[in-house]
Write a structure and sequence with these properties.
The protein contains ten helices and ten strands. By secondary structure, the protein is α/β, with parallel strands linked by helices. Helix 7 packs parallel to helix 8. It is elongated.
């Protein structure tokens, strides 16, 4: 997909129009809509960057914030916010900061904004060539830590439940999945079984990532043929080493 931006703004103000004009001049595809989830969703197949201009004097549309959170997780799209410190505080009650690609304060410094947009899309081109790793864990602290460990070398996406992983994989490709063993509602073995039962996901390599090392836990997943079984306590270096070894073996096989 080319770099297509959906500008979400209550009104087509002078600054919103200036943003559209500047992005078009830089080669971006540009669309516009008001903060309305139904209208925003109409552009889902067309855009890969959502730019939410939180207009001064307008109430922050929290349904739009929820939708942007879902898009950042499910489809790995860029989410960019423009607003005031108070609006950022409200938005980040729902939209985690790590899911916000960039943010800018009003009044907008247009030169800085355009420089950052070019930087982000150039970085995305490089990112797109990295191997994609999906980490699935209900422990948000571990998710953030593992993301930091791997993000420089791999293209990392994170979700905090098994069902989110199923939804994400229905729309995105992963080169490998790191799947937590213990999760509420649907645990790692249950999710692995679901993935193995679908032809669209049955060949995705899955490492079970957990604190469990007892024989019973291992046996429960071994029959489902995961790619491997990694202890969370192993740390950054062991995790990177295991992934590097796996991708090297894949390259050698090809």
């Amino acid at each position: 997909m080319e770099n297509n931006v959906l500008i979400i703004s209550e009104k087509e103000t002078f600054i919103a129009m200036t943003i559209q004009k500047s992005l078009k001049a830089a080669g971006f595809g540009v669309y516009y809509t008001i903060p309305d989830v139904q209208k925003i969703s109409e552009f889902r197949e067309q855009v890969n960057i959502y730019l939410f201009y939180m207009d001064e004097g307008s109430a922050l549309d929290m349904d739009t914030v929820v939708y942007l959170k879902d898009m950042s997780i499910e489809e790995d799209t860029m989410v960019i916010l423009i607003g005031s410190p108070d609006e950022f505080r409200e938005a980040t009650k729902i939209l985690p900061r790590e899911n916000i690609t960039a943010s800018f304060l009003r009044p907008l410094d247009m030169r800085r904004f355009m420089d950052k947009m070019r930087e982000l899309t150039d970085a995305q081109e490089i990112e797109n060539h990295k191997k994609r790793v999906l980490i699935v864990d209900d422990d948000v602290t571990f998710l953030k830590m593992a993301y930091i460990w791997l993000k420089d070398k791999y293209r990392v996406s994170i979700v905090n439940s098994g069902m989110q992983a199923i939804t994400w994989l229905a729309k995105n490709k992963a080169d490998v999945v790191l799947l937590d063993y213990d999760m509420p509602v649907a645990d790692g073995p249950s999710i692995l079984e679901m993935l193995k039962s679908e032809t669209s996901t049955d060949d995705i390599p899955v490492f079970i990532l957990t604190g469990k090392s007892d024989i019973g836990s291992v046996r429960k997943v071994i029959k489902l043929k995961p790619q491997g079984y990694l202890l969370k306590s192993s740390g950054k270096e062991a995790l990177l080493k295991e992934l590097d070894k796996f991708f090297l073996s894949q390259k050698t096989m090809k």
